[in-house]
Amino acid sequence: MGLARASGRNLVAKLDMLVEGTDVPGGMGYRNAARKAVAMCVSDFAAKGVRPGSFMISLGLRRGTSMRQVRELGMGLRDAEREWGVALIGGDTNEAKELVIDCAMLGFADGIVPRSGAKPGDAIVVTGPFGFEPAGLRILEKRAKAEKRFASEAVRRVFRPTPNLEAGVALAPFLSASMDSSDGLSRSLHTIARASGVGLEVESLPAGEGVREFAKQNSLPLRELVLEGGEEYAIVATLARSKLPHARRALSRAGATLKLIGRVAGVPGSVVMVSGEERQEIRDAGWTHLG
Amino acid sequence: MGLARASGRNLVAKLDMLVEGTDVPGGMGYRNAARKAVAMCVSDFAAKGVRPGSFMISLGLRRGTSMRQVRELGMGLRDAEREWGVALIGGDTNEAKELVIDCAMLGFADGIVPRSGAKPGDAIVVTGPFGFEPAGLRILEKRAKAEKRFASEAVRRVFRPTPNLEAGVALAPFLSASMDSSDGLSRSLHTIARASGVGLEVESLPAGEGVREFAKQNSLPLRELVLEGGEEYAIVATLARSKLPHARRALSRAGATLKLIGRVAGVPGSVVMVSGEERQEIRDAGWTHLG
């Protein structure tokens, strides 16, 4: 049982389960798996602008799990504690048919950035590049080839997802709506559009450096890589255009940059790619478990 | 992401994972499995004297899980909400190789009853009968036979564990140490003895009605059934003898009874069964995952 000092008017809590079969790509060790389970929760807190204080971990361990693997899990949790300034306050260990790491993260705040606050005329922004992670997964599964430096960056991002908590906390006061992008950019855009009852027009794809070349080299549609991959752990948000310069300044102090990718406009609930005169629907094609 | 109003000086949080392979006996449906996952957390809150406010659920569902099963899980969570007055505030759904239900339960309190406060001379008490659940498991696995009425009660207790939250809250102000008994009475006694640095002398076994006969009928050692079974979800506690009458009164108002089973005495860390002149060590033999 965990205890944490209450501070702030509301408890903010998030539960996210990492399951070996779907969330742990081949080659990812137990240390990075444990760190990733915590990162998945931190990512949500970052998008909501809340600094988490503590977390708990439920482990499902396969029969035959070695002491070395248990130690690696411990190191991954320790990595997370240091990296994001959170404290592990409790947990539970069980036997299971595959590795399961469930993370419950807790924080206090007076309020959080909703998904439902986007307003017509707002800018759409993201805090990170997209496409590296889906490229990295394809490289790991040997379904794609890539230039060595790009491959190493893409795979590193898959193994060590790094939500930027400081950026999220710095950005939050300026945002009208936001969510993280762990299920893919298109899923985040559609969720915000639906929750806010607005249309979203995307004018530029926030492709990471080298993602365009990777797509070409492997005959993959760039748009799918950038919009439909998932695992990116960046923040997708909307804010009043007047607040854009302030948000940029706050974010640069947190060591991050804001990329403007479009604006809130169009038919409520719609998400479209606009380039010149051309308008093309962006489908809601993020990662769906059991879909 | 869940939000709950903060109240009380400390956040109390508990994470407990139910895994199909070890925690869901054959014949237990999805509705009872979901309810049990919440009961496991409620049991801890009851032992600590804290009324929980909310909970989150992470689900790992097997590929091929039917809509009927998903609805049953929902009904079990609804049962738990009603039964213990807690609100489901969030969760996560995943694909897994077996059913996994992880429950994170949250509450606020100024303090909790520790495991470490037992003092020499204190009385040792329990809030429920022991032995029904291990008997029920044996009956379900067709490893034991039983009189029909006993069997039905024992199996019902396995399928619908019912921690008494009201009893726990009523009792807490009088206790020096306590914990729940879901891993077995001997495990709880040893944990309290170690944490408090005291010895425990058990003078009477809190066997449920009919457990003695069941043991005899199946040639099972009564002591093992009562001490080493687990899954009982009662409270094992110590308190000053002078507080016993007050604790009994408070508990009877909550519709429960207190059974005195022994006293805090003897070599620190030891747990012994005392009957007349005879003293026999009680081994620490509760349920251990991966043990």
Task: Report what the structure shows.
Chain A has 291 residues and is α+β, with helices and mostly antiparallel strands. Chain A is 36% helix and 25% strand. Chain A has a 7-stranded mixed sheet with strand order 7-9-6-10-8-11-12. In chain A, strands 2-5-3-4 form a 4-stranded mixed sheet. The radius of gyration of chain A is 19 Å and the shape is globular. The relative contact order of chain A is 0.18. At the A-B interface, strand 1, strand 2, helix 1, strand 3 and strand 4 of A face strand 1, strand 2, helix 1, strand 3 and strand 4 of B.
Strand content of chain A: 25-35%
Overall pLDDT metric of chain A: 94
Based on DSSP secondary structure assignment, what is the total number of beta strands of chain A?
Answer: 12
General shape of chain A: globular
Spatial order of the strands forming the largest sheet of chain A: 7-9-6-10-8-11-12
Number of H- or I-type helical stretches of chain A: 10
How far do the termini of chain A sit from each other?
Answer: 35 Å
Helix content of chain A: 25-40%
CATH superfamily of the largest domain in chain A: PurM-like C-terminal domain
Largest interface: A-B, 50 and 50 residues
- Specify the structural class of chain A: alpha+beta
- Rg of chain A over CA atoms, rounded to whole Å, is 19 Å
Biggest sheet of chain A, in brief? 7 strands, mixed
In oligomeric terms, what are we looking at? homodimer
Poorly predicted runs of chain A = none
- N-to-C SSE string of chain A, H for helix and E for strand: EEHHEHEEEHHHEHEHHEHEEE
